[in-house]
Write a structure and sequence with these properties.
Elements: H1 2-47, H2 61-70, E1 79-85, E2 100-104, E3 119-123, E4 126-134, E5 139-146, E6 156-162, H3 163-215, H4 230-279, H5 285-317, E7 325-327, H6 329-346, E8 350-355, E9 362-364, H7 366-383, E10 389-397, E11 401-409, H8 432-435, H9 440-450, E12 454-459, E13 464-472
Parallel strand pairs: 8-10
Antiparallel strand pairs: 1-2, 1-6, 3-4, 4-5, 5-6, 7-9, 10-11, 11-13, 12-13
Length: 500
Amino acid sequence: MSLTLSGVVTWFLAQRLAVQQAQDQLNKSTLALKPWLGSLATTCVARTPPPANKCITLTEPEVIMTIDSNRGDYLSQGDRLILLDKPPRGLSLVSPRTPLVLYDSAAILPVGTPLALGKETHVAGQPVRQGEGPLGSQDYLISAAPFAPATPYMSWVVVAHAKDDVTAEAGRQLVRPLMLSAGAGLLLAVLVTAVLDRMFSRPLAELRSAAEDVAGGNYARRVKTTGRDEIGVVGQAFNRMAEAVERARVQQRGFLANVSHELKTPLTSLIGFTEALLDGSLRSDEEKARAATILHEEAQRVLRMSQELLDLARVESGQLTLDLHPVDLGVQLHQEIEIVRSRAEARGLVLQLATSATLPPVQADPDRLHQILENLLDNAIKYAPEKTSVWISAETKAGGRVITSVTNQSGARAPDPQRMFDRFYRADPSRSSAGGVGLGLAISRELAMAQQGRLTAELGADGSLCMRLDLPAAAQPPAQLQTPSLPPVRLSPKPQPPPL
């Protein structure tokens, strides 16, 4: 299609150029003929004084012979010579300014035929009229030059050339170059198509094969992406997708393995103590009471893990419904500290709370905020070394954010802040029974994000672990809440968090 269109356009432009060149040649021929014909008319008049002179009468054979024998010196082959004059006054049926044919070298136009001329232009500073029009049964290119006013008898010399002859000659000259260029263009198109096929088909085939491999379970499959074009960008996106799928698959396998392991331990205890009760191995009331206590604890552990897994699945799938409204964070922190105070004192921990009197409320779900804070405080109380302090603070930051921090010493086995929010992660795997199953922080992070917040962890240079909960401040104050009438929290005189 491109080659055909290019050929048609080239043909059209070449014909236009040939017509223009033929018109320019006609103008030159007309201007060259004009002096010779003017001198011929002047010579005839001078040789035979009027009224007896008739040598310029163009119908006389000797004059026609003179013109025909000499016009070959000025005109090209195929050019047609026409001489015009104004009609005698009183004899013309047309406008007095319309020139009439006095002589036609092709003997087609009769003497006295009016002939309209084209638009005026200038060639070498001399006026010339040029145009196109029918002269008989064919269209001609026409060039007309006026004689000087003193020239007798004749007023215009006209040179015409058949337009079809010009276009036909241009076509004959263009056939060979166009055929050669078309062949060369076709060959080039074949070569370019082969190169493009090699550039695009192979990467696309590799992408298709890699996609089929990933769909078949080969998540380690990657494609080679060396280019920076669109195919290269698609290849890079495919590799990132494959890496994400492989990582999700590994996490899924690890998740299933962890769930199986965490369920296996309590279920083994349940089965073992149940069999002991059934076969009578436990005879004393003390042994039976101890077995019942263990059975209860292990059942609670399985129930707690099931609930945590259900919460995690709901929040990750977006099925968790939140009731967001302003919550007084200061009151909420007091309540949370009172809940864990007995456990903290059992390990000799000192809870230090620092809040501002102008602390704004936060936009959150009270139940889910309680779940997050409970997990943060529970994590600090479980893993902080005995007889140390846990710092709890809340402050306002720029941009309408409220930051709640829980800081504690990490002890000998410091956790990895980058992995703390992974499912089933524990800094000390040996404490699986006492430390839970490692889902609390993962759930807390998802709950924070569901409330337009963020939960992060940072390990200080002195070994202290700081957990930060970032929540949006509420636009409206919360409803008046009553502070619970519980024993006061054990506070230090001037609570200050450790530097990180």
